Amino acid sequence: MTERQITTKIHFCTLDELSDTEKKLLEAAKEAAETAYAPYSRFQVGAAVLLDNGEVVKGSNQENAAYPSGLCAERVAMFYANATWPKAAITHLAVAAKNGKAFINLPIAPCGACRQSLLEAEHRQGSPIKVLLYGAGETACIESVKALLPLSFDESFLNE
Ligand code: THU
Fold first, then answer.
1. Which residue puts its alpha carbon closest to atom 3 of ligand 1?
2. Is the dihedral of CA 110, 115, 117, 119 positive or negative?
């Protein structure tokens, strides 16, 4: 048996370490959290995507009484962006989440299905998506979706 260490690099930063564009995108994600439809979990998530054409697309989680029919904020924003500007690349994604009245302290961690969908977007456009995960205490800044999903499945396996 062999053991391999798979490492991933994630930076944790304070707001003043971010560029003005990144700060604005985080604000957009926080605003988007207010539009969540989350009557079941009461967990409000907002996402904001920045495209290389300068457009910002916001999304929030949309729940359903039939629970799996709902969708996370990240995919609402990303799918709308890709459907509206299919040729534009996503340069950044910012995410923020509220549990009740306040934004959570730890950086919000996207679910596995969102990570998988984001990875596909990164492969499709051929350039990295910088991910900013807001926490009231600290924000995680990740240079590429690849860092969020080690040992990932992608289209290359389909031709193995
Ligand atoms: N949720 C998101 O929208 N994004 C995340 O990164 C984590 C979870 C949503 C799904 C569901 O509506 C609620 O938060 C509780 O899981």
1. 72
2. positive
Check: CB of residue 110 under 8 Å from CB of residue 95.
yes
52 C-alpha to ligand 1 centroid (Å):
26
Among protein residues, the one with the nearest Cα to ligand 1's atom 1 is 72
Strands 130-133 and 90-99: parallel
Here the contacts of 2-7 (C-beta below 8 Å, separation 24 or greater) are: 6/150, 6/151
The rounded Å distance from CA 91 to ligand 1 centre is 22
Separation CA 122–CA 89 (nearest Å): 8
What helix, strand, coil percent values describe the chain, rounded to 5? 35, 25, 40
Q: What is the CA radius of gyration of the chain?
A: 16
Q: Is the pLDDT of residue 160 over 90?
A: no
User: Could you read off the pLDDT of 115-135 as tens digits, one per residue?
Assistant: 999 999 999 999 999 999 999
